[in-house]
Amino acid sequence: MRHRMMTWLMTLMLLSLGGMAQEQFTEPPARMITRVPFKQLNGGIVILKARVNEIPDSLNFILDTGSGGISLDSTTCFEYGLVPEPSNRTIRGIGGIKKVGFINNGILHLPGLNVDSLNFHVNDYEILSSVYGLKIDGIVGYSFLNRYIIRMDYDSNYMEVFTPGEYRYPRGGHILRPSLVTIPIQQLRLKDRGELTNRFYFDTGAGLNFLISEDYVRDSSVLSPRKRRKPVVTQAEGLGGRMTMRLTTIKELKLGPYKFRNVPTFLFDDEYNVTSYPFLGGLVGNDLIRRFNVTLNYRKREIHLIPNSHYNDLFDYAYTGIGMYVENGVVTIEDVASGSPAEAAGIKKGDVILGINKTINGNIQAYKSMLQNVGEKLHFIIQRPSGPIEIDLKPISIL
């Protein structure tokens, strides 16, 4: 009798719970396929080594959530005899809109993983190679990221690739739920003049913290008119070329539950509307994203963040007004902002940097890192047609 009573009570409970104990299908557990090391450049940019098709050499690819596909550099294609098929499709960057051809049905060979049936669009990445001081052979974006679960460990500099399926995120983090077609779009809360919430691209291919369009600045009045220092003029680079931007700070940026104060922010005249204003305000870049270990789960439209050892890294507030690039194998000054510390010190466009302080190695990554030290006197050795000269320069703070 007691057994019948217990059975009846359990049945009643199940009915009252609306069938919560009914059978349901679940995905198989996600399985790790491979672990791929990567290198970080200035701004947090991630460089992966991979091969394409039957090319024997490893190529340098930027891992970019801001890319809606996958691509190869035009000079890399020429070097290895890859002939793109013409198309009427276009890509849009800060420098303009251009038609692109395709290397269709290609294979990306990562350590421990071959990704097939990829259509690489072909673009000119000379500007990126010049900025970073190493050959950029392509960009890995949505065409790869949407097939797997990707975990980026910025503490140890490796990428883990998992099969789609049930995945247990590390404890202690937070799940973002961005909108996603090919590029993740995430809501952020900004606080400066007032408090605003808007949508922004989540862009690991952007070597900066935060970028907003001048249209958004004007229409939203997000920036306080009482900032102690006006935005300074600087130069930035992107797909399509170089352009002048203004650099300032946002008092507070909130990504999920995580707050950052005095975030360096680029403002730019978005002539080609790459930020899709007014639908979006701009983008958050990898110099901020790298402060988390990140899991990208495009199938479920989820991005998991967990703060890592870089979470409290200081932001770069240093300003020199220098735009430097690698030209013909040497680090060359290509831009000196008017009214900047560099102009006041006597640095000129066309100067070749032989060394800064005791670093005389021609490594643009090392030189850019040294320019991030506010208030520290930098001793430049400059080569000019008339001969070498020495110049002292002290970066100022944009705060």
In short:
With 399 residues, the chain is mainly beta. The chain folds into 3 domains: 32-162, Acid Proteases (Cathepsin D, subunit A, domain 1, Beta Barrel); 174-307, Cathepsin D, subunit A, domain 1; 319-397, PDZ domain (Pdz3 Domain). The protein is 14% helix and 44% strand.
Written description of the protein model:
The structure is a single chain. The protein is mainly β. The protein folds into three domains: 32-162, Acid Proteases (Cathepsin D, subunit A, domain 1), CATH 2.40.70; 174-307, Acid Proteases (Cathepsin D, subunit A, domain 1), CATH 2.40.70.10; 319-397, Pdz3 Domain, CATH 2.30.42.10. It has eight helices and 29 strands. The strands form six sheets. The chain has a six-stranded mixed β-barrel with strand order 2-3-9-4-8-7. It has a six-stranded mixed beta barrel with strand order 14-15-20-16-19-18. The longest helix has 15 residues, at 2-16.
Number of strands: 29
Q: Which value, in Å, is the CA radius of gyration? A: 24 Å
- What's the multimeric state? single chain
What portion of the residues fall into strands of 2 or more residues?
Answer: 35-45%
CATH level-four homologous superfamily name of the largest domain = Acid Proteases
Strand order of the largest sheet: 2-3-9-4-8-7
Number of helical stretches of at least 4 residues: 8
CATH fold assignment of the largest domain: Cathepsin D, subunit A, domain 1
Helix-and-strand structural type: mainly beta
Largest sheet: 6 strands, mixed, barrel
Instruction: Give the CA-based shape.
Output: globular
CATH architectural group of the largest domain: Beta Barrel
